[in-house]
Amino acid sequence: MSNTIIINIGVFLLATAAIALVGTKMTETADRLADATGWGEAVVGALFLGGSTSLPGIVTSVSAAWTGHPQLAIANAIGGIAAQTAFLAVADIAYPRANLEHAAASVANLLQGTLLVSLLAIPLLATTSPEVNLFAIHPASIALIATYVFGLGLINKAKTTPMWRPEKTSKTNLDEPDESAVEGDLSQILLRFFILAAIIGVAGYVVSRSGIAICEQSGLSETVVGALFTAVATSLPELVTSVAAVRQGALTLAVGGIIGGNSFDVLFVAFSDIAYRDGSIYHAMTNSNLFSVSLTILMTGVLVMGLLRREEHGVGNIGFESFLVLLLYIGGVLMLFVS
Questions:
Q1: pLDDT, tens digit, for every residue of 260-276?
Q2: Residue 332 scores a pLDDT above 80
Q3: Helices 55-66, 70-93: crossing angle, 10 deg rounding
Q4: Residue 111: per-residue pLDDT
Q5: 207: three-class secondary structure by DSSP
Q6: pLDDT in tens, 189-234
Q7: N or C: which end of the chain has fewer CB within 10 A?
Q8: Domain map of the chain by residue range?
């Protein structure tokens, strides 16, 4: 990176634009992949779309931890989850027929939301537990990965043999495969998807390096830069893909991509702990980091309540829960700046 902050800001903005543009192309590819494999939009949204759009965040957090910036790594990971949850409210505005929580309610999305809350609780427990490390890796990092894998198994089982289903209404959007996405196209779809994912990963690395440079040159804290700037920049694929999915009518893909991607994003903390060589990254968390985790748990809880309550229409074409999520996020951002 340059020694001039103006150049670093320019590089940051260019990499951010690249993330946004490539993220747009990924939605259509992920929707076709869901149809071609028969896995459904919720599972593909969580595994492929959510995981691949998370690549910039992974690169940013891990490289920040590796270079000795643990607060930036954690703030980017958790701040990205909060930003992406707020992006669902933006996607709700883009869908005029009904509130997104009503139309996209599904067993898989509800399970992904509860899995996310469970995952977010683990770093909080680790922060207040004794600093026990094995090869400079805290046991909580292993617990995060194991919980995520176990949760995905439960979600997949619930999709194939659900014990209950949301009541179908005239505004419910069903996840039905497109017959035109034939199985013979699967290899081409996968190749296109992984090429786009690789481009996003490179752009994420550039965002990371320029973000650290801006942090050092501007005097802003790592938590502020991570939670607000790099987190929002690396989360742009989720915003772009969720709005694009909603406009294409792939509502389950939009919600599954955000919530499923958020669950995967919690693993950034585990990956960052492995990359951080100065001990447990959980015990390097500041009060601002803990505030971000708590805020994200609250926002996710509100979103899950919206999926359960299923309000059909709200004020100004946005559900009450979506409005509350936006309000919480804006209030949390202001509090981080003040602190």
A1: 778 888 888 999 999 99
A2: yes
A3: 160
A4: 86
A5: helix
A6: 778 777 887 887 777 677 767 766 776 777 777 677 777 677 777 6
A7: C
A8: 5-174+181-338
Q: How many CB atoms lie within 10 A of CB 167?
A: 8
Give the dihedral sign, CA 69/231/81/202. Answer: negative
Residue 137 three-state SS: strand
Q: Are 280 and 143 in contact (CB under 8 A)?
A: no
Three-state DSSP class for residue 177: coil
CA angle 131, 296, 270 (to 5 degrees): 35
Q: Which of 209, 215, 226, 207 is nearest to 293 (CA)?
A: 226
Which tokens in the block code for residue 206?
């550039």
CATH class of 5-174+181-338: mainly alpha
The answer to whether 117 and 263 have CB atoms below 8 angstroms apart is no
Which residue's entry shows tokens 């996840």? 175
Query: What is the pLDDT at residue 272?
Result: 92
Measured in residues, the chain has a length of: 339
Contacts of residues 175-179 at CB distance under 8 Å and 24 or more positions apart, as own/partner, are: 175/34, 175/40, 175/41, 175/42, 175/106, 175/252, 175/253, 177/34, 177/35, 177/38, 178/31, 178/32, 178/35
Q: What SS3 state is found at 162?
A: coil
* d(C-alpha 180, C-alpha 28), whole Å: 13
